[in-house]
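Lay summary. Proteins are chains of building blocks that fold into shapes, and those shapes determine what they do. In this project we predict the shape from the chain. Here is one chain we studied, written as its sequence of building blocks.
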Amino acid sequence: MNSMVLVNIALMLSAGLLALLFSRGAAVLLLLLPASQALGLVRPASIAAKGIVDVHLLLALSILGLILASVGRLHELRNARFLVPALLWIGFWLYGVVYPLRNESSTLFYALKASKEFVTLFSYFAIALFLRTERDVQWGWRFLLGLGLYYSLVEMAAQVMGEGFLRRLTFDYQQEGVRFWKVFVSFWPVILIAFMHAFFELVLRVNRSYFSLLVSGFGLLLTFFRSYLLGTAGAIPLVLLLARRKVRSIASGVLSFGFVLGTAVVVMALVAGGRVATPGGVLDHFVLSGIRELQTQKGGSIEGREVFAQGRRDILERSPYTGYGFIDKDSKAGRRFQEHMTGDMLGFIDKGDVDTALKFGLIGRAFLYAAFGYLAWALIQLAKQRLRPTLDVRCLAVAATVAVYLVVQPFHAPLTYSFGLLPLGIALGLIERELALALHNRAVDPAPVESTEPMREFAETPEKRILSWSGCSILSRP
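And here is the predicted shape, written in a compact code that computers can read:
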């Protein structure tokens, strides 16, 4: 291993560990620094050694370290709100590792190596256990949402400053269409979470700032993932409806989304040139073309995915109900499968429904979707309790994100790959810890019970005076 790789890894981990001295919420930063290529300033190859170390190993070790540092609090998970889906995730991971060993199609090393992406979902346990205070939770959310806004600003700057700006960063990029630039920021669904968070803050009237909403809205549009944009348009009113919000809130949500999309389309039309220089052209390029492809099942995106998916569908037919578990390309089964498919990886990031079936079988895929569906339902039910306005916002934001993940499964695989699972695991861990703190505070300092009894007179003392009005007690010093 190159000595510079060790130096870069040590520097990155040291930065995250030093931040922990400021707040345990920096555990989120500890995970996001390597995940984001140090905000696009460090090349992935500089913190990787082929076949030995990569970003997923660093993430797995960081997650394990945070859990081990909190091992004395494992008993708190007994009361965790998301314990049921979390146990199912562990079950899926164990199945994916053990099943190839049972069939002698892989060794333990290769099975664990192939499971590294799914393991990032266990960041839920690390964050929920390691963070302790309200301050920790707030800083954790700042780091997570801040990365989403940073990514959005990078994408916006790329459209204005072009390739000269992108060359200064370590993110991959390509020209999209005539004028636009697509930036492949790593673990990009933090943009989706940031947008959902800002959106529900506005709709629930927790925060009326449009800055975060517009910036993350532009960021979501500039990912050029039309399926996520269309999924977002459907998930928002659905979540508001299931949360039993007033019709006014649902209408406000739809109008707000339309405002953000319309603003983004107009601005992009002003920036763009060539065939998409009009708002109609931009709308067609980013949104309407995706709807047409869904209706006709034809187009470069869908047909291109199917070319790669066909060989994998044939492999799936040999074991449709149980799948194959986690199969590495260098394992015994992985080398055998390469003869019957395009590409060298059995897993397929561009077809989530195929990828989940290959890993867990058709039965496992149904249970995995059910587990995430239950998770979204649990988040919505939690928001309906209205323990805290900010907690309601975060529950609905993550519930909508999970709904989008489920909707885009035919086109992408956020439920089995780290780019979607790491941001989701972190967000769920933050919600779990915030919920525990909210319930603890309610138990220690319950809200005063309203009284219908008439106002009473209380004796005054030199230390304090108790005034009672409408059943609410107010303590004051003279």
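What the prediction tells us: The radius of gyration is 24 Å.
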